[in-house]
Specification:
The protein is of the alpha/beta class and 292 residues long. The chain has helices at 3-9, 11-24, 43-57, 90-98, 114-118, 137-149, 155-164, 187-202, 236-244, 257-274; strands spanning 36-40, 63-67, 79-84, 104-108, 121-124, 178-183, 205-210, 226-231, 248-251. Strand 3 (79-84), helix 4 (90-98) and strand 4 (104-108) form a beta-alpha-beta unit. The radius of gyration is 18 Å and the shape is globular.
């Protein structure tokens, strides 16, 4: 069994530990009503997008998400939250070095790293660290941490995740040449992450969009070799239009979207293995991007 398969399967347990961490580290996490920017790179950016959308929609305070390399330096925040599994990503380190006067929180899997050294305070989710280059467990554990902090019970999400770890895949991933992932609200970040997993592990043509944007151009290339995977509920008319193209639709709105992501992760691993690829070590990728 590959490292990524083990890490995907461990997510329900990791989420329970993330809930405990949210209670234990509550003083470090964003205060109600504060203005917060979430930053990251790659997977951590997409988790930042989901967390910012969740926090703002819950009424906890203005929340934005940026790639660490594109942070608007002139904009003022009460807190900057930097998510970095390795704690070594150059763009994140540079941002934290440049911050002047704004408190910063690093959420990472590894202690005693440059990101930890530069942040005002740190939450280390060491139980979620990973051997695979491709992130799964750490990303969703960071999201679980903030969902719990925002007052959500994750009991349903964890129960759904336990089923998704062993559930039959909704489609045969080898039947498609294009994957499109859609979501609304915080689930748009989940869709971005699912597409990244498919690209990283398999080298497949994979895209992601806020759900209602798909009709504004991208649907034009859908064929019977396209799988459109939807997180959460969307308008029925959108799904009808997608099916008219011949594309296959995956939509299980009754399943928590963070748990539904597990099926997308597993599908990426299954397709990688079918193609003779190592899902732990995608070509051209390393665990962390460290620039000279």
């Amino acid at each position: 069994m590959s490292h990524i398969e083990q890490e995907i399967a461990d997510q329900p347990n990791a989420w329970r530990l993330a809930v405990e961490a949210a209670d234990r580290e509550v003083e470090k996490l964003p205060a109600f009503g504060s203005r917060v920017a979430f930053v990251g790179c790659g997977t951590s950016l997409y988790m930042s997008q989901a967390i910012a959308a969740l926090r703002e929609s819950s009424g906890d305070g203005e929340s934005d998400a940026f790639p660490a390399s594109e942070f608007p330096s002139g904009r003022r925040y009460d807190l900057i939250v930097a998510i970095s599994r390795s704690g070594t990503t150059t763009e994140v380190v540079r941002l934290l070095e440049a911050v002047d006067g704004t408190p910063t929180l690093a959420v990472t899997a590894v202690n005693r790293t440059p990101v930890v050294s530069e942040a005002s305070r740190t939450i280390v989710l060491d139980f979620a660290d990973e051997e695979s280059v491709v992130q799964t467990r750490f990303a969703t554990s960071a999201l679980a941490l903030f969902r719990s902090h925002l007052g959500e019970s994750l009991d349903v999400a964890i129960a759904d995740a336990e089923r998704m770890v062993t559930a039959e895949l909704p489609v045969d991933p080898t039947a498609f040449e294009q994957f499109v992932f859609l979501g609304t609200g915080w689930r748009a970040g989940i869709a971005n992450e699912a597409a990244l997993k498919m690209r990283e592990a398999t080298g497949t043509w994979a895209e992601s969009y806020p759900a209602m944007e798909y009709r504004h151009g991208p649907i034009s290339v859908a064929t019977d070799r396209t799988c459109v995977w939807v997180f959460g509920e969307v308008e029925a008319s959108l799904l009808d239009q997608v099916r008219e193209t011949g594309a296959s639709v995956v939509n299980e709105p009754e399943v928590d979207s963070m748990a539904h992501l597990i099926l997308a992760q597993r599908s990426a691993v299954a397709l990688a293995e079918a193609r003779g690829l190592d899902p732990d070590k995608p070509r051209n990728l390393t665990r962390s991007v460290v620039l000279s």
